[in-house]
Amino acid sequence: MAQLWGGRFTKETDKLVYNFNASISFDQKFFKQDIEGSIAHVVMLAKQGILTKEEKDAILKGLTGIRQDVEEGRLKITDEYEDIHSFVEANLIDRIGDSGKKLHTGRSRNDQVALDMRLYTRLEVLYVDELVKELLGTLLRIMEENVETYMPGFTHLQKAQPVTLAHHIGAYFEMFKRDRSRLKDIYHRMNYCPLGAGALAGTTYPLDRSYTASLLGFEGPTLNSMDSVSDRDYVIEFLSALSTIMMHLSRFCEEIIIWNSNEYRFVEIDDAYSTGSSIMPQTKNPDIAALVRGKTGRVYGALMSILTTMKGIPLAYNKDMQEDKELTFDAIDTVKGCLALFEGMIRTMKFNKDVMEKSAMLGFTNATDAADYLVGHGVPFRDAHSIIGRLVLYCIDKNCSIEDLSIEELKEISPVFEEDLYEAISLKTCVEKRLTIGAPGPYVMRKVIETQKEYLARDWQDEDAIDIPR
């Protein structure tokens, strides 16, 4: 059992205790980050005169050799080692001798694992952001192609008012855009280097923590050594952001599942993203959407796990914090997989535009506009509301839309109706006259699409600098 401690102990750790305590099975995921952090630490130690140039060169050669051998499969990470730190240091000493024992000068596994976790999480934030951005690009293309694709808008799953597919998809564009904003906030808030905090109280060695931070691409060193080793807020924040992303994906998946049903037929999911039944040959199931919806709870579970783990831990580092990794790794991999699959499903999905338009017409989504027509002709709104309610009941009884009624039938319900009503309540008119920013009217929708294009073209750093169209 290769471990970095033991001098104070008089007998071997019980094998069950060792296995329970060991983290190599999952923290080997930090392999690259552990090497990266060690290289920066050694360069800083040499700069400060704590290591000689010869020692620095030997350690750096050993570290890069270990990294290359692992990446190319010549060296295996096994459970012979307690954790990834033990693996790297033990193999370094085997390769270069006593110089390797100086690698750990001025640091503890507490600040080392805190650094590894930050480096890993920071990189995953960028990976997830890139996937969300790719999804946004696909959504924007759908919006551009469907500015005049009419469909019902819903409240309480009831058909409410006519909108366009571009407008409906645009709502999800806003959700995922906020997700990117959260990721950016997390990235900047977490981007401070804990290395050099030691176990909890710093070190007597003259470390240059700012230099180490700059080598690793951090904005600076953390400012309290106790907080440095015991902080996992950034993990909680990232899992919270991932949970919100999954919530947005799940909502979208729920709608796709509904739209894909025989009753709606708004969409047809590509065969590549569908599955069949083992007994019913006619079925084509939206299982990717269902699995994404189901995996949302898995990501929520990771968030609740780390919140529960952290809630009772006193300062500074405690072994409980080892539990921050496995479920976090799983949640990150789950979200990345869901984003990639969902984007592919949306990109290849067919929208049945004629079915959507017919659904809007038969759902009385223009009833509010019919009431507005009466108000425009001098009828008090409350009376207009009642008249249109009777009109809808009449149509339901006849199984037709308002537009299907003759002018004579309309006048029987209210003599105010004239021939111009048909134009006033057409889906095209109902949508086009909604011209405020954020509404589905094609004129303002195209303005919003141009704004979203500019947003996607900007660097991450500039994403908040978005001009609102007027």
Question: Could you characterize the architecture of this molecule?
Answer:
This protein is mainly alpha-helical and 470 residues long. The protein is 60% helix and 4% strand. The protein has three domains: 15-105, Fumarase/aspartase (N-terminal domain) (Fumarase C, Chain B, domain 1), CATH 1.10.275; 110-149 and 163-198 and 223-352, Fumarase/aspartase (Central domain) (Fumarase C, Chain A, domain 2); 367-425, Ribonucleotide Reductase Protein R1, domain 1 (Orthogonal Bundle). The strands form two sheets. Strands 1-2 form a two-stranded antiparallel sheet. A two-stranded antiparallel ribbon has the order 3-4. Helix 4 crosses helix 5, helix 7 (165-190) packs antiparallel against helix 10 and helix 14 packs across helix 15.
Secondary structure: number of strands: 4
| Element-level helix/strand string | HHHHHHEEHHHHEHHEHHHHHHH
Supply the CATH architecture of the largest domain.
Up-down Bundle
Q: How can the largest sheet be summarized? A: 2 strands, antiparallel
State the CATH topology of the largest domain: Fumarase C, Chain A, domain 2
Count the DSSP helices: 19
Structural class category: mainly alpha
Report strand %.
under 5%
The portion of residues assigned to helices is: 55-70%
The coarse silhouette is: elongated
CATH level 4 superfamily of the largest domain: Fumarase/aspartase (Central domain)
Determine the N-to-C terminus distance. Answer: 68 Å
From the alpha carbons, calculate the radius of gyration and give it in angstroms: 30 Å
Mean pLDDT across the residues is 92
Strand arrangement across the biggest beta sheet: 1-2
